[in-house]
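Reviewers asked in the last cycle whether our approach scales beyond single polypeptides. To address this, we selected a multi-component target totalling 420 residues and predicted its structure end to end. The input consisted of the following lines:
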Amino acid sequence: MSKDKRPPDWSALVGMQPSVGLMPTSLREAATRIRTDSHATLFRSGDPVCHVYLVIDGEARLIRLARHGGEVILQRSRGGFIAEASLDSKAYHCDAVTPEPSTLLLFPVVAFRTALEDDRAFCKAWQSQLAKEVRKLRAQCERLSLHSAADRITHYIESEGDDGVVTLRQSRKSWAAELGLTHEALYRALRRMQDDGTLSIEGTRFTRKA
Amino acid sequence: MSKDKRPPDWSALVGMQPSVGLMPTSLREAATRIRTDSHATLFRSGDPVCHVYLVIDGEARLIRLARHGGEVILQRSRGGFIAEASLDSKAYHCDAVTPEPSTLLLFPVVAFRTALEDDRAFCKAWQSQLAKEVRKLRAQCERLSLHSAADRITHYIESEGDDGVVTLRQSRKSWAAELGLTHEALYRALRRMQDDGTLSIEGTRFTRKA
DNA sequence: CGTACTTTTGAATCGCATCAAATCTGGTGG
DNA sequence: CCACCAGATTTGATGCGATTCAAAAGTACG
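The resulting structure, written as structure tokens, was:
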């Protein structure tokens, strides 16, 4: 985990995260940029909340370890904020890791809270951001309460993809975890759906048919 | 669904929903109170967003109908807001119903947005509200990605309950839906856990042991 | 070229969904 | 008060699909 003094390319970030565009300059200037290794830990459950993280490159995950050793992904972010919901908490309630070498911006929570208080437009954008996250999580709950693997895959494509097509930005194995399935179950369901003709796969591009 | 002109008991509402305490008077005065019948529909997917709802008495649910006729509960609220995340949307993305006769406050979205812009403290409280909802939904996703019925029950008690004890405020049948299980599976799992001695049940009070 | 990881297939098992039906419950109207 | 009804609760039997354990083949990377 190394620091990096060059200023980030803000205009590129706005594209992937609208609320960044409305972030006041003072907050931007308070940010530090870091690069992490594969499997690096950003924070652990119980640590005091001191930063809000923006993933510029690579990926960050919030995870919690299940009783039987399994690892549950609570949030996965590529090109967006992570741990936003901890902004008004004292301590983190889960662990955060970067599964691959990544670049992140760290915003001190104090500066972040001040910016939200002082800047009307940023505050509003942040609210949309949270509301969007709520809707996304509701969709995920809905998906997880479907009983069959095929239904979850279809639901994912319909809600995350665009007009029946989705390009996967992660390994199928971690997709399986996101869908609440074992990787074997996912592979087999994909195979069945291809044989059915209800799905076509080209590389990381999944297209739903019929 | 009938209107009701008496002003609600605001002080009681604050207890169950902190952000109500910081709501400006102008917004309170813009609210209307309604009473609904059992199985009443508040709005349907695609309807334009015109109110934010606060459940005073009874229960409201956001639901979506699954392909095979099943009904998935996206949000369940007793004594809190519902459809908060639609505040910045044009149209609702699911249906809302009151499964039992209930009393709700309806806040016009326009007045609500104005209040958020004008009132600093209310805006801040609303943000905590959304952040809290995000954390709650993350917990639910985590729960739904557990594979066994017993694990989901345990997780529910640990995260929603207090020190290993939870008092259920709904039928077991709808609890089953919230846990992503059929009601039969829930009944049987509860039975097994009682026989194990890992759970004790007295009426609607569930206590986790060991 | 070896190592770590993902992807893929196989076989056995277990738990949940499903269908069916009986009992219990609270509330309604006669 | 009782008959009745709708819904929740409970138990049973069956089948399917996902998990689990195991292992092979493919792939990226140093």
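The CA atoms of residues 18 and 190 of chain A lie 34 Å apart. We regard this as preliminary and will revisit it once experimental data from Aim 1 are available.
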